[in-house]
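Q: What does the assembly look like in three dimensions?
Context provided by user:
Components: two
Sequences:
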Amino acid sequence: MSVAADQQASYVRQTPVPAMPPPAHQTGVLGWLRANVFSSVLNFGLSMIAIGLILLIVPPLLDFLIFDATWSGNDREACLASAERPVAGACWPFIRERLSYFIYGFYPLPQRWRVDVFFALLAVGIVWLLAPRARARTWGALYFFVMMPLLSYILLVGWPRYGLPYVDTALWGGMLVTVVVSAIGIVFSLPIGVVLALGRRSRMPVVKFFSVVFIEFVRGVPLITVLFMASVMLPLFVPEQWSPDKLLRALIGVAMFASAYMAEVVRAGLQAIPRGQYEGAMAVGLSYRQMMALVILPQALRTTIPNIVNSYIALFKDTTLVFIVGIFDFLRTIETARVDPKWATPVTSTTGYVFAAMVYFFFCYLMSRYAFDMEKRLATDYRRRRGK
Amino acid sequence: MDRPKTMDQKSVSGGFVRRTADGAGQHAAVEMIGVHKWFGDFHVLRDINLRVARGERIVICGPSGSGKSTMIRCINALEEHQRGTILVDGVQLTADLRRIDRVRREVGMVFQHFNLFPHLTVMENLTLAPIWVRQTPKAQAEEMAMHFLRRVKIPEQAQKYPGQLSGGQQQRVAIARALCMNPKLMLFDEPTSALDPEMVKEVLDTMVQLAEDGMTMLVVTHEMGFARQVADRVVFMDEGQIVEINTPAEFFAYPQHERTRLFLGQILH
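A: Here is the predicted structure of the complete assembly.
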């Protein structure tokens, strides 16, 4: 053995080492830049390209949206470029004037409070179900999946005997339709998806067969095909007076489509649950249903919340496809409004599309943030996996 | 076959074990007659015959892959046997799901990896089955849970989640969870194998205490000290067969079968 090793072996520290601050080049703005932006040649190049792109995109965008934009006026004249204003930006008065159309479609003016109440009911349900510290979440789920849909139906469609005049769904439009279609997709896809996912893992061959066929068939065709099927083919098979409402047909199509995707998301969650959880539940005498409802699904759904929200985001954007079967969703109302001669200017269409993009982005980003926060909370939560 | 179900809550104030006056000695706690099991083509259990009397403590040992775990998992139908008869407290295990659920209610099981429910607190882990399976009122179930948590010496952890406890504490929670169903019989599947060495003792102490209270126990373990101390009989298995059954004193001092001698020679040093 060498001398150095001997010395090392007999080394004993005599005085404690006090904690020292880190070297200066690792802290502060400079340290951050060094570590995150200019840490290597490749990183330096990428940072430069990114900064270049930002400079290329952001200033013109801000010019169009804010600095060159028209903020007031009553018709196209206000939004046109003129001698004293050579460049005309976004035409915001157009959005302001047509906003109620974008939200309610042709829903009769005196009845629009019903739509507002519906939005409020939905907001309550969402907050109740998703807020991390919400109380009595079982009741929240009952409200969201049972009571709210019933109330909303009565509210939006009407109940003439009790003073709510009937409103034909052909008059619905705009954000109302987008929200209704998404909400129906969201409310129905989760329970149906759970049932399909359990069915797919079932030991009963018939149940398993039907679940697999449904999931694979619906997942194997585009949403547009499902919508065409629902709106064109379905009326061919049922007599005229039995033929359901156009919106309802689209809703069923969307709900079926979303359920099939949800089934796969839930199945992935179920697969992540270790076998020991099933055995633990069986060993204390829980029946199959109790085991699933009390032990397996709560864990499986909790871990898949980010994925569930992810498919909700996709669903929310997919609802724009219902315009193909002649339903006036939010995007469709903008489509029709932008060609209105009253507001015909070179910037009207762009303004309309930018507005649509901002609205969709707002909702999707909200959902995405929620999923992200949830993921972080779950990672730091009690589930440190040691419990198996 | 069916005995009237007697719900006896007196055990809450007493020890670990429910002592019912009725039917002592009527049936064996477990009776396995000519049991065979295959995993695919692999013959895991071969002609298992074992009768466990009430209050008896059985330790099952043997090399890994010898079918010990599979055998006790057959007793609460976590594994299905393909030939032979298994009677648990006089009830025959068949494919009938309701009958299997009834047997599982009376048989507690402790796993190598605890299998606690990580999304529930310790208290909820303990009261889940009594509330949903036995329809015990919540307050009563919680009282009983606290009683067993005190017995396993961790009442202060009731409101924590399993992930916040050490392995030894989790295993003691798992024992308490099984006891909350007032089982007539407890199965232990290598309860200390996944634990850090310094935590083995606390779990074994709990099990010794349970044995002293007269619980019928079938324990798969490599802890030979435990076998010596509490077992009435030691069962040695190899290649899916029961090779030797004897009292611990005889078993360790005068192993009869060649394979037993080989096994003991390997583990007792």
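Follow-up: Chain A touches chain B through 25 residues (CB under 8 Å).
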